[in-house]
């Protein structure tokens, strides 16, 4: 099934479930914070997993905790937010994973709580958890690669090796993985190889429109530079 079709299927499931008041509060609160394609993937899958495997009372309690943590973040109180997220990380599998992603995001951001090594450790922990759906693990791997490259561009070749399996046909985030691969190649000065990757993205079926537009733009940019 194409990536877009998978996303649409997940969204249909979520739209039915968020009519429940408790999860709608979480969706409304967290939806305001979405800022990237990867975050959208996390939100959609969180809703799908929660409402297909939920344990009502515990999930309701953890929903309250998560909303409270996001409120602290909006208020700039990262200390209290991190404390709640760490507590959630040992709870229900979906919320535990969601909390780890959020904690890693805070630790990777500029500020007095910045700790890139800890953020990388959390992303790797998620990626290595065989109990999780592949899309969660691939999302964590992509975040790990992006942050690792930001920390030390000299790791680029090793990171390209790490991202290669995610670029294979059938992987849930193939287009996003290819996009990241193309960006790394471009920043390394390997423009011809980067262009091939971006053209490959454009030619894939079912690619999210935003990803395809960015790939077309990059391919055109590289062509104009040659």
Describe the structure in your own words:
The chain has twelve helices and no strands. By secondary structure, it is mostly helical. The protein has two domains: 1-151, no CATH class; 156-226. The longest helix is centred in the first third of the chain and has 19 residues, at 56-74. The protein is elongated, with a radius of gyration of 18 Å. Mean pLDDT is 75; it is low at 14-24, 29-38 and 47-56.
Q: Which descriptors apply to this entry?
A:
76% helix, Ancillary SecYEG translocon subunit/Cell division coordinator CpoB TPR domain-containing protein, transmembrane, mainly alpha, 12 helices, membrane, SecYEG/CpoB_TPR, TPR-like_helical_dom_sf, 226 residues
- Separation, N- and C-terminal Cα atoms: 36 Å
What proportion of the residues is helical, as a percent range? over 70%
Task: State the total count of DSSP E strands.
Answer: 0
Helix-strand topology string: HHHHHHHHHHHH
By DSSP (H or I, 4+ residues per run), the number of helices equals 12
Instruction: Indicate the overall shape.
Output: elongated
- Uncertain segments: 14-24, 29-38, 47-56
Strand composition percent = under 5%
Backbone CA Rg: 18 Å
Average pLDDT, all residues: 75
Overall domain count: 2
Largest sheet: none
Structural class by helix and strand composition: mainly alpha
Protein name: Ancillary SecYEG translocon subunit/Cell division coordinator CpoB TPR domain-containing protein
Domain Ancillary SecYEG translocon subunit/Cell division coordinator CpoB TPR: 24-198
Pfam family, one: TPR_21
Transmembrane segments: 33-51
């Amino acid at each position: 099934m194409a990536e877009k079709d998978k996303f649409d299927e997940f969204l249909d499931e979520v739209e039915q479930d968020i009519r429940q008041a408790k999860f709608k509060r979480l969706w409304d609160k967290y939806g305001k914070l979405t800022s990237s394609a990867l975050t959208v993937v996390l939100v959609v899958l969180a809703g799908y997993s929660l409402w297909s495997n939920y344990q009502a009372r515990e999930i309701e309690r953890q929903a309250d905790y998560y909303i409270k943590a996001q409120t602290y973040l909006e208020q700039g109180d990262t200390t209290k937010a991190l404390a709640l997220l760490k507590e959630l990380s040992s709870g229900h599998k979906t919320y535990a994973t969601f909390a780890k992603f959020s904690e890693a995001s805070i630790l990777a951001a500029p500020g007095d709580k910045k700790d890139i090594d800890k953020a990388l450790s959390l992303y790797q922990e998620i990626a290595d958890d065989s109990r999780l759906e592949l899309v969660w693990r691939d999302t964590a791997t992509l975040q790990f690669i992006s942050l690792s490259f930001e920390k030390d561009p000299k790791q680029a070749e090793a990171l390209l090796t790490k991202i290669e399996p995610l670029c294979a046909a059938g992987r849930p985030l193939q287009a996003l993985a290819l996009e990241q691969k193309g960006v790394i190649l471009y920043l390394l000065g390997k423009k011809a190889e980067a262009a091939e990757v971006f053209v490959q993205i454009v030619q894939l079926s079912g690619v999210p429109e935003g990803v395809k537009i960015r790939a077309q733009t990059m391919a055109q940019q590289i062509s104009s530079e040659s």
